[in-house]
Amino acid sequence: MAAAYVAAWAGDVVRVLDAETNDLLANISAPGSMDSPYTLALNPAGTRLYAANLNHNNVTVIDTTVNAVITAVPVGDNPRAVAVDPTGTRVYVTNGGASTLSVIDATTNTEIDRDPDVPGIQRIPTGAGPRGVVVHPNGSRVYVANSGDGTVSVIDASTYSLVTTIPAGSSPLYLAISPSGQRLYVTNQTANTVTVIDTTTNTVVGTPIPVGSTPFGIAVNSTGSHVYVANSGNTSGPSPRSVSVIDTATNSVVATISHNQRNASFLAVRGGALPLTTPTPTLTPTPSPTGTATLTPTATATRTPTPTATATRTPSPTATASPTPSPTATPTATPMP
Q: What is the domain extent for residue 144?
């Protein structure tokens, strides 16, 4: 059975959904340690799920085979995003309140100290206000979007040291890397653009690509031919919420999918290119009890009444946790900038 995981930020739980039926299978919680899970990441095997807890300065480690919490690993202040390397042995966490990057040893579930001779945990310095983080497909580099100073930090994964800093745009939030690892895409929240970076030279390619209002999450399809950008929109104004579709061959927007789902900030893409039948298709999402709005058979924008992040895994042994009712949603929550 394929499963999807939703970080219910205001509910302090991770919801487990059947990816085929959208049925709720379980709610995973850990009172006292899992507080405001903001983003999620799965290891390559799909056996471990990592949740960055925004208000508790730790990362929850979940065994997905039984839908149970294993432990919580302390990290830096205000952890925002989490990513796992291709080997599944290292987990990277951006600490937005400390402008650092934590590295977790996934075999021991402990944070790595980059300089044990200095008192306290020595984390990797980043730019100001780090948000998104991605790992190169070969595991050699880690990229961090720094919303506070408009840059991307490039980290050497073997030495835990800064390689270089790349100018991005105004308030860069999240990143996605192509399957080949040659292109990095960065959403610039206040500029309403996406910056393209050549990872072989660590330089910006061309000019930023104009997209929709307040771009947030971003994903690349499995072939690298298209990039999908979740535009969360201006919640107090007329700007529509949408998904911009970028053709990576031309670095231009080839379609815009309107959905009008408030707080739809993150997305995931399965398979190849989105079939485009018109230049600007408009699709009306169909609500479900789990809060999932399906836009097309191959690209989905997932939303719950609270800000969410999702992760999916391939079929695994049947989980032993029994379904539990979902707690009452809090529709008034807004995404953290």
A: 3-313
C-beta of residue 8 within 8 angstroms of C-beta of residue 304: yes
| 329 Rama class: left (phi>0) / alpha (psi -120 to 50) / beta | beta
0.85 surpassed by pTM: no
Instruction: Kindly state whether residue 329 falls inside one of the protein's structural domains.
Output: no
* DSSP codes of every residue in 171-212: SEEEEEE-TTSSEEEEEETTTTEEEEEETTTTEE-SSPEE-S
pLDDT for 301-328, tens place per residue? 333 333 345 565 544 443 333 333 333 3
Q: Is residue 147 part of a domain?
A: yes
Counting the structural domains of the chain, the total is 1
CATH number at residue 15: 2.130.10.10
Cβ 155 vs Cβ 142: under 8 Å? yes
pLDDT digits (tens, 9 = 90+) for 150-184: 999 999 999 999 999 999 999 999 999 999 999 99
Kindly state whether residue 249 falls inside one of the protein's structural domains.
yes
Q: Do residues 326 and 24 make contact, with C-beta atoms less than 8 angstroms apart?
A: yes
